[in-house]
Design goal:
Layout (H helix, E strand, L loop, with lengths): L4 H21 L7 E5 L2 E4 H17 L3 E5 L3 E3 L3 E12 L1 H5 L6 E8 L2 E9 L4 E6 L3 E4 L2 E2 L12 E4 L9 H12 L4 E4 L3 H9 L5 E4 L4 H13 L3 E3 L7 H4 L2 E4 L1 H14 L1
Parallel strand pairs: 3-5, 11-12, 11-13
Antiparallel strand pairs: 1-2, 3-4, 5-6, 6-7, 7-8, 8-9, 9-10, 13-15, 14-15
Length: about 260
């Protein structure tokens, strides 16, 4: 596939940071790890990847603003454009030697996500999307799954862990969804959940309590693959509310209906 100059910038940054993560993943037992909160860890690999991404993106597009998991908000001269970055989505997987983690980069222009990249260096899978240009995994065009019978569907989710609120509500949501579907999966990396929805591997995804950097790139991946993405109230406040539902038109609607019934 032919990538735009913008996607080339994002892809090159992700690949460079990915090489560093891959090296650290091979030596995961030797990483210096500090506890950031219950069940939520930050490592030297995380911080190093974010530094690489910031340097590469600033060099290519000076003046753009940043929203980063570790570095927070950095206001640039160009307030219309903002990079939204998670240098290591799935940190807990990474630190346990589980090869399901990713770099996530999205570009927001005047409040609208216009491009996204999700890269899993352990699997060497690069997901890219640009508004109006479709979604791709490496060089293969992506489409969301077309299943319309929930009994045939596999959906993914994020389970609130130690220190997170909403356990009882989540368990009721999961109970109701389990009664309808062929299977429920928990990946531990929302960026990959959404990328897998875009690729048709998962039929749908729902989660609450996320941050903007967890899902910004995944949102445009799903949309450009022909899917639907909203918050759990069927609105567009995912980045602010932290909750999300995604899938094809049918699965997305059923997820929203089921989650609403569990409230």
């Amino acid at each position: 596939m032919a990538r735009s100059a913008l996607l080339n910038v994002m892809t090159n940054a992700a690949l460079k940071a990915g090489r560093a993560l891959a090296r650290d993943f091979g030596e995961v037992q030797n990483l210096q790890v500090s506890v950031k909160g219950p069940g939520d860890f930050v490592s030297s690999a995380d911080r190093n990847a974010e530094k690489i991404l910031r340097i590469e993106l600033e060099k290519a597009r000076p003046g753009f603003s940043f929203l980063m998991e570790e570095g927070g908000v950095i206001e640039g001269r160009d307030t219309a454009h903002r990079w939204i970055i998670d240098p290591l989505d799935g940190t807990t997987n990474f630190l346990h030697g589980i090869p399901m983690f990713a770099i996530s980069i999205a570009l927001e222009r005047e409040g609208q996500i216009i491009a996204g990249v999700v890269y899993n260096p352990a699997m060497d899978e690069l997901y890219t999307a640009e508004r109006g240009g479709g979604a791709y995994m490496n060089d293969r065009r992506l489409r969301v799954a077309a299943r319309k019978d929930m009994a045939d569907c596999v959906v993914s989710t994020g389970i609130p862990h130690l220190g997170r609120r909403g356990h009882s509500l989540y368990l009721e949501q999961q109970r109701r969804i389990m009664l309808q579907v062929a299977g429920v999966r928990r990946m531990g990396a929302a960026a990959l959940d959404l990328a897998f929805v875009a690729a048709g591997r998962f039929d749908g995804f729902w989660e609450s309590g996320l941050s903007a950097w967890d899902m910004a790139a995944g949102i445009i991946l799903v949309r450009e693959a022909g899917g639907f993405v909203t918050d759990l109230a069927n609105g567009g406040t995912m980045l602010e509310s932290g909750d999300i539902a995604a899938g094809n038109e049918f699965v997305h609607r059923k997820l929203l209906e089921t989650v609403a019934a569990a409230a």
